[in-house]
Amino acid sequence: MKASKVLGAAAVVAGSVVAVGAAACAVVAPRHGNPVIDQQWRELSRYRYAHRGLHGDGMPENSLAAFQHARENGFGVELDVHLTADGGLVVIHDSDIARMCGREGIVEQMTLAELSECRLAGTGERIPTFDEALDVFACDPTGETELPPFVIVELKTWGDNFTELCEKAMACLDAHLVRFAVESFDPRAVAWLRNNRPDVIRGQLAENYLGNKVMPAWMRVGGTALVSNALARPDFVAYRYEDHDNAAVRLSCGVLGAHLVAWTIKSEHDLLAAEAEGAVVIFEGFLPE
């Protein structure tokens, strides 16, 4: 084969590789070019976010006291929303209430009334409803007082309840004058937002799942590599801080321009390092200076 033909064939192959790579990047690229979302993000990124509220000193995680404490200190919060057996919405991290309430029960299999009887971590604080949590961060309808921080809402799906959870969570958010973004580990929930509520800032939660022996291999690899971005096209990627220095995050949040949220920051050193990289931080266990 003549040199010219070899070079020509090589150019075709190289061009094909570039084209495939560009197409792949286009498929998983975050959303761009929405001025309303861009402005909301600029405002959201002004705050630091207390993980499950600013808890401690008798204020349990995901309690109204922890949320009020965060607002009083000028922090936004990240909180977790579940769907109850009778279609209510409550704020608690685990589906299994044993860790926080010292009794057996699964949130999604309990009614709102049953859950209201539970107390958090041996205190008088009970599991808040989503309505109650949002009331803490409600804006003044007169516009006379300073705007409160944003709330980052994590949708905690259970089984295949993502559609009902998304619908009811969004209806609740629409009924409150709050500033918010929504995220989930479940890409089906993030994709639901993409398809049904494009007006909402949406984020894909992830971490390095490769060491998780419970998840199937395809899910471990795909979740770590943010493959679901092709389905959800998130505005931001909320990645576990200890795991965030990897090719998938560098592609999504570097080359392709998604915003980065770092969780959960547990020291002032890591908080400043994450912010130096341009990340919005979710922190826990200390009071940032």
What does this protein look like?
- The structure is a single chain.
- With 289 residues, this protein is an alpha/beta fold.
- Helices cover 39% and strands 16% of the residues.
- The protein has helices spanning 3-28, 35-44, 64-72, 98-101, 112-116, 130-136, 162-174, 187-196, 217-224, 229-232, 247-255, 268-276; strands at residues 49-51, 76-83, 89-91, 151-155, 180-184, 202-206, 236-240, 259-265, 280-283.
- Helix 7 crosses helix 8 (187-196).
- The longest helix is centred in the first third of the chain and has 26 residues, at 3-28.
- Mean pLDDT is 91; it is low at 6-24.
For the biggest sheet, the summary is:
8 strands, parallel, barrel
Structural class: alpha/beta
Mean pLDDT: 91
User: How widely separated are the two ends?
Assistant: 68 Å
Enumerate the strands of the largest sheet in spatial order, edge to edge or round the barrel: 1-2-4-5-6-7-8-9
The number of distinct β-strands equals: 9
The fraction of residues assigned to DSSP E strands is 15-25%
Stretches with pLDDT under 50, minimum 5 residues: 6-24
Choose one word for the global shape: globular
Radius of gyration: 21 Å
**Helices and strands, in N-to-C order?**
HHEHEEHHHEHEHEHHEHEHE
Number of helices: 12
Kindly state the percentage of residues in helix. 25-40%
Describe the structure concisely.
With 289 residues, the protein is an alpha/beta fold.
Layout of strands and helices, then pairs:
Layout: H1 3-28, H2 35-44, E1 49-51, H3 64-72, E2 76-83, E3 89-91, H4 98-101, H5 112-116, H6 130-136, E4 151-155, H7 162-174, E5 180-184, H8 187-196, E6 202-206, H9 217-224, H10 229-232, E7 236-240, H11 247-255, E8 259-265, H12 268-276, E9 280-283
Parallel strand pairs: 1-2, 1-9, 2-4, 4-5, 5-6, 6-7, 7-8, 8-9
Antiparallel strand pairs: 2-3
